[in-house]
Specification:
It contains four helices and 15 strands. By secondary structure, the protein is mainly beta. It has a domain of 141 residues: Beta Complex (Ferric Hydroxamate Uptake Protein, Chain A, domain 1). A five-stranded mixed beta sheet has the order 6-11-12-9-10. A hairpin with a 3-residue loop joins β13 and β14. The two termini are 32 Å apart.
């Protein structure tokens, strides 16, 4: 069942069962001796009142924190709770929840994401940021989504602006802006291991460890490994595009 949800007047859907990967429930292995007490799970956005929804903070519109109701742009926010409940395994998959974005999977590993048409692997009219810093590749233009493989558990939210923002963000923000905001290192301390297996997404593994030197210096490192089955060509034969 696709559950409708609303945020600042915009109706969107949360695909709670849209992915059918026959994934054996992802194993989350934790070492209690290494992990600090977990913070309380953020309140489900469906339980918030209208005033609380309008007070949701966004930073991508004016480069400073402001209420969603005060933002002079069409903003869509994907929260950590949305990522966790949707079952997505990559950032481009999560962006399929955003109305107005065209997300195309080229093969088992590569993606093409854009807004307002003219999609392609090296589309350069949609600015993509991680914590406010561009990940645009000037060599061939566009974004290498296969290299933008952050652990989804470390993402706080994804802010998507549909519409021009070049006056504030520069020439690549013609059709929109995607700002991936990660959690602070101090909020991801200790060990985290995730493992999922299935028939198409055959193996997905993530290992992350966070530590600190003192009260002011926190850090984290992570590694990911994936094995994905390939797609079929127009004749129904193996396209030989599987990825490890």
């Amino acid at each position: 069942m696709i559950k409708p949800r609303a945020l600042s007047g915009c109706l969107f859907t949360q695909p709670e069962s849209i992915l059918r990967r026959y994934t054996f429930s992802g194993l989350l292995l934790t070492a209690s001796t290494l992990l600090p007490p977990c913070p309380a799970v953020a309140q489900d956005i469906t339980e918030l009142g209208l005033e609380e929804l309008l007070n949701t903070e966004v930073t991508s519109v004016s480069k400073t924190g402001q209420k969603l109701s005060d933002a002079a742009a069409a903003v869509f926010v994907i929260s950590q709770e949305d990522l966790r409940r949707s079952g997505v395994t990559s950032i481009p998959e999560a962006l399929r929840m955003v109305p107005g974005l065209h997300v195309a999977r080229l093969n088992a590993n590569q993606w093409a994401v854009t807004a307002r048409g003219f999609n392609g692997q090296f589309a350069n009219k949609l600015l993509v940021l991680v914590d406010g810093r561009t990940v645009y590749t000037p060599i061939f233009s566009g974004v290498y989504w296969e290299a933008l493989d952050l652990p989804l558990a470390d993402i706080e939210r994804i802010e998507v602006i549909r519409g021009p923002g070049a006056s504030l963000w520069g020439a690549n923000a013609v059709n929109g802006i995607i700002n991936i905001i990660t959690k602070q290192a101090q909020d991801t301390q200790g060990a985290y291991i995730s493992l999922a297996v299935g028939d198409e997404e055959q193996t997905l593994a993530t290992v992350r460890y966070g530590g600190h030197k003192d009260e002011q210096l926190h850090w984290r490192v992570f590694g990911k490994w994936s094995q994905r089955d390939g797609l079929l060509d127009m004749q129904g034969e193996d396209a030989r595009d599987d990825w490890t």
